Amino acid sequence: MKNTLIAFLMTAYALVSAGKASAHSAEKLERLSVKALHHLYNQNSKAQALGEKAVAVLVFPEVIKAGFMVAAQRGDGVLFKNGQVAGYYNMTSAGYGIQAGIQKLSYALLFMDEDSLKYLKKSDGFDIGSAPGLVMGDQGFAGSISSTSLQHGIAAFIWGQKGLMGGLGLQGTKITRYYPSE
């Protein structure tokens, strides 16, 4: 157990340190986020339909996940409301379970109503596990959700996975507002 904890702490520290060292400027992060969101919408018509009805979209264009038994992931993102930047956010996750590998992916949260968006803004760090009405969507699952069936809460999409990460485990994710360099 002690070795697992040490491995977890080293993985988490490496991801957080690497993320801070390579943090993008606000302008570059915005460009990457717009490009990633367009990519999602081009490959997933359900995500695009939901995005057109969403009151805001939080896009993490580059999330890195790595670990062995314990895993961590990190990424910076942009919140768009009415097509304009409404804030910058950081996502950090930690997990424990039967898992191994390293992966890069893109991630988006579509806020379907003002109450869900208010939850993001008022919380001191947004914990996805306690988010109101969260629905996960990917290429396989997205066929079961639509812009008419999901009108409240938050829809989450993961796409563009590269690398190899597999396994099962428990994970907690924290999303916090931050202010990048210009």
Description:
With 182 residues, the protein is of the alpha+beta class. It has one domain (2-178). It contains 4 helices and 5 strands, in the order αααββαβββ. It has helices spanning 2-21, 26-43, 45-53, 114-122, and strands spanning 56-81, 84-111, 126-127, 134-137, 154-178. Strands 1, 2, 3, 4 and 5 form a 5-stranded mixed beta sheet that branches. Helix 2 packs across helix 3. The longest helix is centred in the first third of the chain and has 20 residues, at 2-21. It is globular, with a radius of gyration of 16 Å. Mean pLDDT is 76; it is low at 18-22 and 130-150.
Q: What are its keywords?
A:
single chain; 182 residues; alpha+beta; 5-stranded mixed sheet; 4 helices; 5 strands; globular
Short description:
With 182 residues, the protein is α+β, with helices and mostly antiparallel strands.
Shape: globular
Q: What is the arithmetic mean of pLDDT? A: 76
Query: What ranges have pLDDT less than 50 throughout 5 or more consecutive residues?
Result: 18-22, 130-150
Which class of secondary structure composition applies to the elements? alpha+beta
- How many alpha or pi helices? 4
Radius of gyration: 16 Å
User: Could you state the order of secondary-structure elements as H and E?
Assistant: HHHEEHEEE
Strand and helix layout:
Blueprint: H1 2-21, H2 26-43, H3 45-53, E1 56-81, E2 84-111, H4 114-122, E3 126-127, E4 134-137, E5 154-178
Parallel strand pairs: 4-5
Antiparallel strand pairs: 1-2, 2-5, 3-5
Helix pairs in contact: 2-3
